[in-house]
Fold this sequence. Notes:
The complex is a heterodimer. By secondary structure, chain A is of the alpha/beta class.
Amino acid sequence: MSEPIITFNKVNKWYGNNFHVLRDIDLTVTKGERIVVCGPSGSGKSTMIRCINRLEEHQQGNLIVDGVELTDDVKAIDDVRKKVGMVFQQFNLFPHLTVLENLTLSPMWVGKMPKKEAEEKAMVQLERVRIANQANKYPLQLSGGQQQRVAIARALCLKPKIMLFDEPTSALDPEMIKEVLDVMIEMAGQGITMICVTHEMGFAKAVADRVIFMDQGQIVEQNTPHEFFNNPQNERSRDFLSKILGH
Amino acid sequence: MSASTFQPIEARPAPVKTDGLVAWIRINLFADWKTTLGTLLIGAALLAILPRFLNWALFHAVWVPHFEACHAEGAGACWGVIAEKFRIIIFGRFPFEEQWRPLLATLLLCSLLIVSCMRMAWKPVLGLAWILVLGSFFLLMGGGVAGLSKVETDRWGGLPLTLLLSSLSMAMAFPLALLIALGRRSKLPAIKTFCTIYVELIRGVPLISVLFMASFMFPLLMPQGFNIDVLVRVLAGITLFAAAYMAEVIRGGLQAVPKGQIEAAATLGLSYWQTQRKIVLPQALSMVVPGIMNNFISTFKDTSLVTIVSLYELTGSMSLALNSDADWRPYKIEGYLFIALIYFGFCFSMSRYSLWIEKQVNKSKLR
Lengths: 247, 367
């Protein structure tokens, strides 16, 4: 279990010329590890995980994902994106395609899979997130929680080694959060490497192997959930925890 | 209970009628003092104008192409002029005995356009149909083979020319506009600059000057003996002109597609072209259907400007037909009303079709 799958090595990133959004990020994620990233808004959490599939590019340092170093090389980027699935805060389903078409799009066009096979595999994933009966609806006809589960199923269709979650429950009504978290918890039990930006501390306690706390573009503290929640070392993480757990 | 205690209630008035002609008039024309006033004013205006118009257009109109009857005192519209001249109006200067050729060509092209509008025809074979129909159109009109006498393009005219110019320039302008719209959003500076300059340059000049350039300037700049048919040059001019405007309409749609859509496509491994084709363009185009139809309709009407470079399309051949004959020259109003009706028929169908398309592409937004 100790084989590294993602390695950040002194990664730095600026927005424009002077906004230093990631500062000397050093992070090694091992295969199958489940990591929760938290921290105040604007601390660079999303930017960091978006570097992993190069939705954002870093300017300094090395970032290696499953043996491939991310550079300007388009082939390397394509290679990495095939192994990394991502779920967004705003779902980003394709509104003009049905749920099923959302899922089969990439297997058919990128993976060159025949339509029938792609649809069968997509239905398996939809079963997994318990939404198979909505396969022929359009995304906007579903609730937020259902849409996010479809988005998870869509990412899973690519059989990714790594799943990135960028605040997957932040745009949902409280009562829909649970249905999404349940699906994620189920996934966590299946050995896929997960990195999840979230403020759902219950989820962190339940599944995370490690919690990473970021502030002002730096990783301030990382620890097991038990240690992090009960015995935070850094003053800023203590402050953050008191705010989000305080009520 | 004895019978004497029975007290019938007072009869109530019948409820106000809410259907039927009288009710419709009351609700829509005389609902309150404002609508009543409006109804009276418009009614008065119609009463003042309509009888005179109807007298002119119908009751005192002359329906036969009889010159003296039209000139008689108190005669109204002279619709006979259309019966007399319609073949020149519709087919322009095309040799009179050969006019079955443009008729057949027009019917072919019209059927192609109608079929292209139908959903069930949207298959790759439609492209083949376009090539075949356009090929036979040029053969029929141009002749020179299979026993058909040769007819130079400067004698083509009337409705077939209008339809050819507009349908072909729209069909070519649309894909060109797509590429230019995508190019203006490209990350590559050379492509972006080129597309921006193209749009700004073309939008900065009127269509008439583009047509002048295509028709008169272009041959001057070409080496001796090298010549491209004027029809092709004009067609290229209209296409380039329409594409610049359409590109901006499409670019508006492209900008309305959220960035998250492109990011999601990227994480799914789709290439640039796959993303544009499968994700961005379907959403962008469905948002700009009304704008694109605007372009189509204005391109259709703009083809009337080719008269100034001596191609006599529908409007041009109308004035040609009447100007060349001193007897009928005074009856241009009738002629213009006639071709206005033709233009209206085409433009109105296009706008109704656009509504249908909007309904089709917005199915996914219904709940």
